[in-house]
Amino acid sequence: xxxxxxxxxxxxxxxxxxxxxxxxxxxxxxxxxxxxxxxxxxxxxxxxxxxxxxxxxxxxxxxxxxxxxxxxxxxxxxxxxxxxxxxxxxxxxxxxxxxxxxxxxxxxxxxxxxxxxxxxxxxxxxxxxxxxxxxxxxxxxxxxxxxxxxxxxxxxxx
Length: 158
Fold this sequence. Notes:
The chain has 4 helices and 6 strands; from the N terminus they run αββββαβαβα. It is an alpha+beta fold.
């Protein structure tokens, strides 16, 4: 195999992986953003707003090509994101587990939770023609407020 063929093959493989990849995102509010905010029924004031989102690409709307995933990094003791190839990690169960791990790492309870779910078809995009018959994508997200647990809530008040 010549160097040119190897280079072209590598570029095509990398391009295909980039197009068919998913992603996962963790977004949080800045410290102090929620000062003065109260939530009915919560035992304490929220200290952080967190949004977790994940996205994936599918062949024939059912076979996952690449999806975003959350995983717990034991060494760093934190929630991280990555890509899962040929695994479906876009789901409420995965989001809920990641949210609870994130809240646990901050010794907080989760309140005011809401989920977001959207599927996209490429069939409606005239410039992509028949691609929509073969490919689709799915996106899910969860949003919540974090309230410190027991002793952490008391310590914050002082």
